[in-house]
Amino acid sequence: MGHDMVRKNGSKLLAANVHDILRQKILTLEFKPGTRLIEDEISETLGVGRTPVREALLRLQGEGFVAREKGWVVDEIDPADAPMLFESRIAIEGYATRLAAKRRPYTLIATLRGLAEKMSNFSGLSRAELNALDREFHRLIVEASGNAFFIEMHERTQYNYWNLRLPILFTREQVEASNAQHLGIIDAIEAQDDQLAEELARAHIATTMTIVQDALSGF
């Protein structure tokens, strides 16, 4: 293998690593929407050249995480995009849940039931804690599908949804209904009823979409 090929592959590897690091910082809100990303600062912090940083930022731009506005900035999310985000979740999670029911990984059911139990005690949880449990519940199901593309796409819809900064508080009744839907999904996965699992997952997300849309209509 020639030196040019080694350098080329090395550059791609560095860019992929930088992309993964920056993407994770955005997903975890270490870099909040509106944060400016300076190429030189990233290069110095990560100890890499500007080329892999630029390649990583261009990839993040293509994925919708950053935009160019007189420099790089973590993209702001428009609440008007909420319907599209939920439609994406319905499509991705619905089929991912069907696949999870077919595969039914050994430890999945117990883990999901543990999360559902924690969410059932929501009166002692903050909104952020409840949201985190809900995110983990859905992430695990998508991960159990075994489809890496679903996992990546789902992560992006979750990022966008929780960063909409929507002024929405779910009522006690709505949270209880959501928890009941979670239990139904778990039961369907455990029974390996893939059709029912998909139907319940789609209905669950559609219910949340309706709540969000109704809340947005009042603003």
UniProtKB/TrEMBL annotation:
GO MF annotations, alphabetized: DNA binding; DNA-binding transcription factor activity
Domain HTH gntR-type positions: 12-77
Q: Which InterPro entries match?
A: GntR_C, TF_FadR/GntR_C, Tscrpt_reg_HTH_GntR, WH-like_DNA-bd_sf, WH_DNA-bd_sf
What SMART domains does the entry give?
Answer: FCD, HTH_GNTR
- Keywords on this record? DNA-binding, Transcription, Transcription regulation
The answer on whether this UniProt entry bears the keyword Transcription reads yes
Tell me if DNA-binding is a UniProt keyword of this record.
yes
Q: Which superkingdom heads the taxonomic lineage of this protein's source?
A: Bacteria
* Name this polypeptide is given: DNA-binding transcriptional regulator, GntR family
